[in-house]
Amino acid sequence: MADTQYITKNRLSQEVNTARVWVAIIGAPIAGFLMYSLPNFWWIVGLAYLFSVIGAASTKRSGAKGELKTLKLLEKLPDSYVLFNQVDVPNSRAKRGFTELDLIVVGPNGVFVVEVKNNNSKVTGDEQSPNWIAHKVGRKGGRYTAKVRNPIKQLKKQVHVLAEHLKKNRASTWIDGVVFFSHRSARVKLSSPTSVPVFERKGLVDYILNYRPKRSPSNFEKIVQQLALLKEGNIQK
Questions:
Q1: Residue 177: how many other CB atoms lie within 10 Å
Q2: Cα 144 from chain centroid (whole Å)
Q3: How many angstroms separate the CA atoms of 45 and 34, rounded?
Q4: In the structure, what pLDDT confidence band is assigned to residue 114 with cuts at 50, 70 and 90?
């Protein structure tokens, strides 16, 4: 079993719980105020507020489930692999001052950044497009589409930011990226071959185990140490 000592409670799950608390604490007073000041229309505003909170919470809940499901798969790796989740890597070019990486795997045959998507639909696109298209079916059978940020572009930025950080801290190494669609209903149809592997539901663990780098990491412990320091910084925020 892989080393999971650096796995912490999923941040998205915590944010969902926080959203529920805000609905309970703030939602009720707002509804009361609106009932008093807008007796004929308060319910419209109240419902809009409620649906916005529920929608955001639903997206985060789905993301959390995807990451947890992927972690369960990665835990099957041998104990020579170390897992990290939700690592904030300093990035002066990002609005928040850091770039969040879903999952990182450090093993004897390389370092892997895993970008997790939990879409329960067919997704189409290509590597160069800024967005991919998710083809969805509504509860009543109606079909519609929604834009999804191109995960390959996201992943490449994450790999670049992490590589820069490790190099700056004398833990330079080659980093590979993988996109993983974790939902059992995910179907990915891309119009052309991609420069990074994209898996749906399975294949991730076998890919990592069978990966043959041109040169294996010679500074394994230094890399783990630097990632552990980032996790420690995350906890202290």
A1: 23
A2: 24
A3: 8
A4: very high
Q: Where in the sequence is the domain holding 205, given as residue range(s)?
A: 3-7+78-236
Q: What are phi and psi of 98, to 5 degrees?
A: -155, 165
Q: How distant, in Å, are the alpha carbons of 83, 84, 147, 150, 182 from that of 114? A: 11, 10, 21, 14, 11
Q: Please state the pTM of the whole predicted model.
A: 0.80
CA distance 136 to 120: 8
- Residue 209 confidence class, pLDDT cut points 50, 70, 90: very high
Cα within 13 Å of Cα(74), Cβ side: 28
DSSP 8-state class, residue 170: T
Residue keyed to tokens 């897992």: 83
Q: Are 208 and 83 in contact (CB under 8 A)?
A: no
Alpha-carbon 111 to chain mean position: 17
Flag whether 56 is in a domain. Answer: no
Question: DSSP labels for 9-40?
Answer: --HHHHHHHHHHHHIIIIIHHHHHHHHHH-TT
Residue at token pair 């696109």: 125
Number of domains into which the chain is organized: 1
| Residues pairing with 132 in the sheet | 148
Q: What is the number of other CB atoms lying within 10 angstroms of the CB of residue 188?
A: 20
- Residue 187 included in any domain: yes
Rounded alpha-carbon distances, angstroms, from residue 64 to 59, 108, 155, 174? 9, 28, 18, 28
Element containing residue 91 per DSSP (H, E): none
Q: Do you know the residue count of the chain?
A: 237
